Amino acid sequence: DAKTTQPPSMDCAEGRAANLPCNHSTISGNEYVYWYRQIHSQGPQYIIHGLKNNETNEMASLIITEDRKSSTLILPHATLRDTAVYYCIVRSDTSGTYKYIFGTGTRLKVLA
Amino acid sequence: KAGVTQTPRYLIKTRGQQVTLSCSPISGHRSVSWYQQTPGQGLQFLFEYFSETQRNKGNFPGRFSGRQFSNSRSEMNVSTLELGDSALYLCASRIHEGEKLFFGSGTQLSVL
Description:
A: 112 residues, mainly beta, six-stranded mixed sheet, four-stranded antiparallel sheet, 10 strands, B: 112 residues
């Protein structure tokens, strides 16, 4: 199963873009990259996912490198409510069943 | 549409006891998976059920078991509780294979 590596913590000023990196150098060709975030005492919340193309939705943008060995989640205008632990996940496909492998996450603190 | 519902929210047990946790998925979702979250190990996959069949299993001892009912509701059982079983147990549902996970708020289990 592909494993992800993320920095343990990051700070970002409110209103600025938050760029959260993730390394997944062992990812296979058909494995998707997912991002979730977890605010204290709640379950993880889906943000975005992608395979090889860059993706954007109302919450964030996902930039995946051409070799797919790393990706960056971008929160374009971080707010205090974006303070959370962000997980980069590779969805593995084993014999037609899917498993989501969570890394240790990045604790993002948005500063006023 | 109601989200994923987990009961109870908090639970206190003593070593050697057994516990059953409940998860009601989002209506129409047929897949339910369970995760254990601890400060030291992070989010770890326990197992996944789809249409009452276990489709995937993580690396946990046989004391951890689960089942899914015909209405897609799922239960997780832990027998002979150990102190190390203290954790937040999260349930997630999805419509079918490959779709994003929707998490509940979890059951916080404390083993004394």
